[in-house]
Amino acid sequence: MQYVIIGGSAAAISAVESIRSLDREARIDLFSDEETPLFSRVLLPYYVAEELSKPLLNFRTADFFDENRVTAHMGVKVTDLDPKKKTVRTEEGKEYAFDKLLLATGGKAIVPPIPGVDKEGISTLKTMADAERIYNMKGSRAVVIGAGSIGVESCISLTRRGIKATLLEQLGQVMPTVFDAEGAAIVRQRIEDLGIEVFTGEKAVRFTGDRHVAGVVTDNRELPCDMVVLAVGVRPSAELAVQAGLTLGDMKGVRVDETMMTGARDIYAAGDVAETMDIARNTWFLNAIWPCAFEQGRIAGLNMAGQQTLYPGSYRRNSIGNFIGIPAISMGVTQAESCAMASAEDEFREIRVRTKDSYKKLVLRNGKIVGAILVGQTQKAGLMSMLLKKQVYVADCIPLLMSDRLGFMDLLPILRRNADRFSEPEYKELMDTGL
Amino acid sequence: MKVLMVDKEKCTGCHQCELWCGTEIASASREMAVAIHERPQPVPRVYVEGKPFALQCRHCESAPCLDACPNGTMRRDPETGLIYVNEPTCIACWMCVMVCPFGIINPSSSLKVAVKCDRCRSMGYPICAEICPTGALSVVERKDYRKKKF
């Protein structure tokens, strides 16, 4: 057996681990266009903030490839994939044959077509090279375009280094894909308390300056600055999939089945490049987040190594950690309206509880959780995540779910009436207590 | 692998396990009288819940926290199967909190680390089971549910 893995981040490494849990011998060749191995993209804002040095960005130890007997080709781009001959070719023209291949090429940061976007001092934040570029930028004023997770984190990171940062978002609120208006208002207040200027509903139309950026012109004002971070989102790096003729979805990700296999036999895809069935949205979706990449990589790896394992589906999960001083977690859909694929019979319900320093919201479709937002009090967020993933009926337990005192053991009756979906030993042994 | 089980007939909900976990494992002083006054307040890793039942990390076979951790801070001990937080590298991103199906990972904003039960892996035997006045907690082999029952 000969495995080829294209990509070197979460999905790829997770696949290596699961292949090796079943197959210690087979040859694994891993190709990554990043020069730096094993760093966690999620942590790049921490690098920009000077909170983590380079070695601390690693999510596996430096000897990972040796330990797992992986031939890692770092900084090597694969340019051709032939699904019929079952070979890949690198930029240098070297050819490698495979029995099973994983496409984990991830995503690319979107560069919006704004006039002047190619000026110096403007960068996305996706690769190690991006992080180093931003870290080394000189100046005292920055504009961050796009108030998603990366945008907000970049903005706070620059602020922590004494740079005056402005956050610009063309939609009406910060973190529009992560929070509803009420949750976003709390987050925005926190961001502003850190000394960051936030403009929402405002679009960048042009960059000024000669060779180097000197300002951002929006539809309302001009913001003078020395640097710009573009954080308007990612799109799947699907060039290789297109070249190989694999089936893409509406969102231009590689379509995979429940075993993470693409339209071509023995070729799998996982992570930000893969378009999977979204449990909460009940449609195909790109959930380009770390936990999904890791889960999908594991499922792909197990199937590649011959152990049939089915992926239950993806769903969005975001946590903004310690960046804004309070924990804030969100998952699934943020509001009923964002379920575009809802059929007429679907019944939606939103439940909210707001206190002085916390906010909790559940979105239910036909009595099952499809979205949750928790700000302030987040320790029980995982319970919502579990109920969302398992898609069990909870509409008769709303007071319990919204209670501050909710604990896992209170959910046992829900688990018991859906015992077929809770077959993992960790659930069974607690159901067995008879409580 | 072994798991910590609670005998519901014996668990009286006295919270002694929480108190001792907080003192022995979480406090700086390891003296109960002193620990009570410590700031930040020591965070226990066991939660007496519901009816009552002392719940701690279940060390899931397929653990969502291991998938979610973005920098390998959440680790599984290859010998015992126990999952633990490598505190020096925890960046308090709370991704593990977001996915823990039991809600037993505490996002300690004062300590800036995720706090969860590692079943006292450095001591060899969990303090909660050691001190439980009714002997309700014990470490037992995890039942194999895959075995057919006929």
Keywords:
heterodimer; A: 435 residues; FAD/NAD(P)-binding domain; Enolase-like, domain 1; 3 domains; 5-stranded parallel sheet; 12 helices; 26% strand; B: 150 residues; alpha+beta; Alpha-Beta Plaits; two-stranded antiparallel sheet; 5 helices
Overall description:
The complex is a heterodimer of chains A (435) and B (150). Chain A is 24% helix and 26% strand. With 435 residues, chain A is an alpha/beta fold. Chain A folds into three domains: 2-109 and 234-304, FAD/NAD(P)-binding domain (3-Layer(bba) Sandwich); 122-230, FAD/NAD(P)-binding domain, CATH 3.50.50.60; 326-431, Enolase-like, domain 1 (2-Layer Sandwich), CATH 3.30.390.30. In chain A, helix 1 (10-22) runs parallel beside helix 8 (290-304). Chain A starts with a strand and ends with a helix. Chain B has helices at residues 16-26, 32-35, 64-68, 95-99, 127-131; strands spanning 2-6, 47-49, 53-55, 74-76, 83-85, 106-108, 113-115, 137-141. Chain B has a two-stranded antiparallel sheet. In chain B, a hairpin with a 6-residue loop joins strand 4 and strand 5. Chain B is globular and about 40 Å long. In chain B, 45% of the residues are buried. At the A-B interface, helix 8, strand 22, helix 9 and helix 12 of A face strand 1, helix 3 and helix 4 of B.
- Summing up helix and strand content along with how strands pair, one would put the structural category of chain A as alpha/beta
Most extensive interface between two protein chains, with residue counts: A-B, 55 and 45 residues
Q: What would you call the structural class of chain B? A: alpha+beta
Report the C-alpha radius of gyration of chain B, rounded.
16 Å
- The string of secondary-structure elements of chain B, in order, is EHHEEHEEHEEHE
CATH topology annotation of chain B:
Alpha-Beta Plaits
Largest sheet: spatial strand order of chain A: 3-2-1-7-19
Rg of chain A over CA atoms, rounded to whole Å, is 23 Å
Supply the CATH architecture of chain B. Answer: 2-Layer Sandwich
> Tally the helices of chain B: what do you get?
5
- How would you sum up the major sheet of chain A? 5 strands, parallel
Number of domains of chain A: 3
What is the top-level CATH class of the largest domain in chain A? Alpha Beta
What fraction, in percent, of the residue positions of chain A are helical? 10-25%
